[in-house]
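[agent] plan:
  1. take the single chain provided in the ticket
  2. run structure prediction with default settings
  3. attach structure tokens to the ticket
  4. add a short note for the reviewer (M.T.)
[agent] executing step 1
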Amino acid sequence: MQINTGDIILRKEKISKSIWLSERLVLQVCAGTSEEYLWKIRTLYKKSIPPTHRMRPILPDSGKAWRWARMNNTFYYAYANIPDRKPCFYKSMLPSEDELIKLAIEADKPNAAELANEFTAMAQQKTSPRDVQYYMFDCEPSFSQQKAEQLALGLGFCRLITALLEGNRFKKWFNKKEDLYECFSKIIAPLELEGLKVNKPAALRNKITGFPENTTEQLDYLVSARYGNDHARIVGIFQLVHPETGEVMKFDAHEAIMYESWMNPFHANKRSKIDLYTHDYKPALEQYGLHPVSHRTFCQYLDRFDNKALMSKERDGDKHFNDSYKPYVPAHLVQYANTMWAGDGSGTKLAYSYMHTDRKTNKTVLKQATLYLVRITDVASRMIIGYAFGTSENADLVNKALKMAIKTAGNVEALEFLSDNGSAFTVASIKSSLNLIFRKVRNIKAGNSQENPAEMHVKMLTNMCRGNNNWLYSGFHAHDINNNTNPDYFPKPSELPSMEETHLQVLEAIEKYNHTPWGADQLTPIQRFENKNPECKVLEPRVLRHAFGNRTEVDLSYMRGFINVNQVQLGGHIAHFKFEIPDYDKNIHAISDRLGYQSGAKVMVCWDENAADIYTPEGAYILTAKRAELAAKSAFEATDISDKALGKHLQRKTNMVSAADAMRDLVIESADVMKYGHRLHRGKAIKDDYNEEMEMCLTEQIMERAVAKKSKTHLIPKMVLTPEQAAFNDFF
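[agent] step 2 finished; step 3 output follows
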């Protein structure tokens, strides 16, 4: 017996529930019945009903056999009124009443896969690109786009479950809350979402129980508390406190010793890492009752990008610091001189010629090909706002067309993007860009190209190209002879235009198309495009650079506060771009922190001509650097802008020197506090005696430095410079 949806209906009567079976099910199970038999039986039963009740869709119970009803355009028969007597015993052929009730419930249960797809789609509707952008750029810490999308989807599931629990809305699908948690845990577990990795109903319930109502708090709810903790750290947790002021020192016991020994303040000699670790750091830590770190960890701290930069001035001297780490003033070379969108890709049906070299024979022959075009069309205005040419459909063409479309729209977002299922629109990189930019992205169902509004625009554009001699066929109803060119007179490859010339033909057609009036008001697509959706907002520059900008991997540890990138332009010319890391003397620590305190500072940079965004190698956003303003190399080419740039970069140099000096002073102070605390612990001096001793020692050091400075002054005559000369020397 096969039970279909709607075969069994359970109805509430005045006193009890009634079970109704469809005619299809009765004919299937009850042998000896037929449509003709049931028609006759319905007529007889109707006569048993008072005339005033005969027009009702559900006939009242007259006590006769075969009570029937018409529901959903189908005949149904009351189970209680199906006869069970000789010779047929129809009711005995059917399952019991309890069995029928169970079968009805089972038939009404939704398919698990369909339910999972439905709830996943509902969760996605509870999110927006703004959620993804928050986790990528504004969250602390920031996440890669992949993890940001996982966090956003997890947030959507939490919002959906919370909404279903309100007012018992879940009872549309489930009888109990436990069933809801069971279902959603099975849906979420395989996804392994960042921040929502649950595989049991109880874990999901605990997660939802604490979900906040405030939308701002919701965004941070799924960000794990493990990010940013330092439970495994040894260095940095044994803080030193100044005995006089109670101030917590910048560096802890480990850092104070290792950094001071490495910098060796006010001394010329440089000792190796193994020597400093073996004879200075390790004995000192053991003496203070602290467990030293390994030699490897010791070296890792000294080799950190930020530490190398800020300790170089004291260890290596001003020249090496200036040449390797201190930011410099970039300068010019000497010079005188100045909403729904639909995506579609297809052949233009315009042929062109090109030179082809056979790999086997190495012979070059002239061949024929068809120009391929990717278009981005604004549906409301019908304007082709972005396009790119090529030999075949690929992600690069889609990316170029999207970039052009957004530029045409003035970097204003579109709300929805629709495309076919072409391979170029479904690759991971393109899908990532689309999901980041548009609020909703969807693909047309396979085999249903008519759903794409762009198809009409493709037809119109193709028809505009029919006047060209290299036009092949329309592509629409191509079996029609009138939509094909005459092959007898079609140009030979040598008579066909080049690819560049074919480009111009399509550009002319697009221009003509965009300027052709249509509709009752006879406005052109370009004119209609001015009337934009008021909900659309200007896209974040960081979003645009992440989607369409140049990508370059660089090591910031060698660039002294700047980001230097190159770009090969048309003709082989290499353009150089320089971007300035803001507040480098402060952000150097933040960069190093985000990179895991590595020896180098390898980052991924997404950039355009105006700014560069710095990301970790895993794709987590760090900060944005603007295009560096350049000073003039020569005073004779100086302008107000270059003079302003000069002052700015001189200040950056000063700030870096101050940061290096500050690190030295903080290290010395921390080390002195360490020594002071140790003397008191050993009982070798009381506080006043120690302070008097240190004061005398300091006075002696000052006197020694003064004598050394005086002797140097007598040995090397000091050159008196004009203010202009001094500024120039400091500049370079």
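[agent] step 4 note for reviewer: Residues 712-721, 723-732 have pLDDT under 50 and may be disordered.
[agent] ticket updated
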